[in-house]
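Shall we go through a protein fold together, starting from nothing but its sequence? Please make up or recall a protein chain and show it to me in full. Go ahead whenever you are ready, and we will take it from there.
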Amino acid sequence: MDFQEYEILMDLAETKNITRTAERLGYSQPGASHILKKMEKELGFPVIIREKYGVTLTPAAKLLLPDIREILTTREKLEQTIYSIKGLEYGRMTIGAYSSVSIHLLPQILREFKELHPNLIIDIREGGADNILDWIDNNMIDFAFISRPYARTLEFFSYGKDPLVAVLPEGYVTDGQSSFPMHSFNGKPFIISAAGNDFDIHNALRCSGITPDYSYSVLDDQTILSMVENRLGLSILTKLICTGCHYKVDLMPVDPPSYRDMGIGMRSYKNLSPAAKNFVDYAITRVPDIWNEVLDVSE
């Protein structure tokens, strides 16, 4: 097998569509199909299953993916190192992030960094906590803007605290309190982020020992805000998620105070590509200031 075959198989695992993979990688559809047939002949077993609306990888092909990812990551790192030695800038990196970080934090960092390094290609993948950790484990991203996962080990550079806030329908009676006691959620209809989407909120609820009425489990944060606005229940989100919120809801700090520790996480800083190291180094110095500016906007 060669790098053409590696790249096509990896991309097919994501797109599940030969035509789309061919377009993304610069091949014709017949050209990509020819490479797949050549790969199957070399391997001695099929790598795709053709279905009505696309293709899926065979179980045997899926077993190859972790090693292929490792090979492609190593090749990218090698090429970047060679260009670095020549004094040229080249490279591609993939960053994982919560959608709230992609909206409120990354754009300014990306703009500043691209002004300094215009030839680098940067891909962004948005997801929940479990998605991002899985991407890190499988070398699908170089690093991620994520909250500290206390249940496991990552190299982690913290840049700020994101307070948890109670999300209440507009005008919800709070008896003039400046914060919302966690015990006040007890027995109330509650809209919770789906399991694996935000472990900090789930952990805060678990540690409080309360038992809200978990009426809804929702993946998208904006949907949660809309549902609270429509008085379907109460919720807890973070200050960053609610920054710039246009929904008719009231936000209050939870009591006792709780927060998620935000930072940049990766398997190994030492093993990052030169381009990824440059970005992480730059972000570590700039993000804390931008982070404070962003959170102040919502106050």
